[in-house]
Structure formats: structure tokens, C-alpha cells
Specification:
Elements (H helix, E strand, L loop, with lengths): L1 E3 L5 E7 L3 E7 L4 E7 L8 H6 L5 H14 L8 E6 L14 H15 L4 E6 L5 E6 L5 E5 L2 E4 L1
Parallel strand pairs: 5-6
Antiparallel strand pairs: 1-4, 2-7, 3-4, 3-5, 7-8, 8-9
Length: 151
């Protein structure tokens, strides 16, 4: 997880397979944050959660928002976008653990419970993604399958 407030700052995360990349941006405060989460629920390994809360949706997302708010972002202005949640191991019908789907479901539930809307998403499918957030503009770019596009 990283949170920045410089208008020229660029946050990037690579290899979003079943993981999620979550951006939070406040255009007025010029605060942006990017979180790369791997798993939906920290209760599967409390020790790892204590060492790295950013690894899990249920502990990492609240930490991302708290850090953004501490840097000057306001809940009413934040724009949240997400990418990832793919099934990169093969056919979706063979994805026994469905980590990507479970990550996205956990995120949607957490945002809904806290009254935060998701502005845009690019989740699922079978390809890994690279995600970047330009803090000054709020622009989120994705690269997947040799193509780039704005989210």
C-alpha cells in the first residue's frame, strides 16, 4: 500500500492476477492511494495479518482509507476504482478456490457497509493486469494482454 499527495506522483502495481488493485483518489485534496491485496479474509492467518494487514481485503482496505483520510482526503469526494480478480490458472470452472471472485465480493461488501461507491472496475477474466494511478489527475491506467486503457 502507498498513499501520496504530490501532483506528479505515480503509483503502480504489477501482476494483478487473482489479487486486486484498489485505488482511492480525492481530486480536491490531491491525495491518492493504491493497495494490492492478495486474499479476502485475514482470519485464515492472524499472524500474517498482524505482520502485513495490506495482504487482505478486510484489513488492508480500511487501512488504505484511514491513511488517505489522514492525508486530507474526504469520504464524500473519494473516487474508488479496482482491477484484478482474474482466474489466471486456467478455466474458471477449474478454479476451485475462486480467490479472485472472493476478493472482489469481499471488497464490494466492505465498501457497501461503509457507504462508499465503486466508480469503476475491471475484474475477472483470465489475464494478469498492471495498474497505475496518477495522483495529480486521478487517471487510472491498466495494461493487460499487450493493451493499455483508462479505467
Amino acid at each position: 500500500m502507498e498513499v501520496c499527495s504530490g501532483p506528479d506522483d505515480l503509483l503502480i502495481t504489477h501482476a494483478l492476477g487473482s489479487c486486486l488493485g484498489i485505488t482511492v483518489h480525492d481530486p480536491v485534496a490531491c491525495v491518492g492511494g493504491l493497495l494490492h491485496v492478495m486474499l479476502p479474509d485475514s482470519t485464515i492467518d492472524v499472524g500474517k495479518s498482524a505482520d502485513n494487514p495490506f495482504m487482505f481485503v478486510d484489513t488492508g482496505v480500511p487501512a488504505l482509507f484511514r491513511t488517505c483520510y489522514a492525508a486530507g482526503a474526504q469520504k464524500a469526494r473519494v473516487v474508488v476504482k479496482v482491477a484484478g480478480g482474474a482466474c489466471v490458472s486456467g478455466a474458471e470452472d477449474q478454479d476451485f478456490f475462486q480467490i479472485g471472485r472472493r476478493n472482489f465480493a469481499a471488497l464490494r461488501k466492505l465498501l457497501w457497509r461503509n457507504g462508499v461507491l465503486l466508480k469503476a472496475s475491471d475484474v475477472g477474466g483470465g489475464q494478469s493486469r498492471t495498474m497505475s494511478l496518477h495522483v495529480g489527475t486521478g487517471e487510472v491506467l491498466l495494461r493487460t494482454g499487450g493493451q493499455s486503457f483508462r479505467l
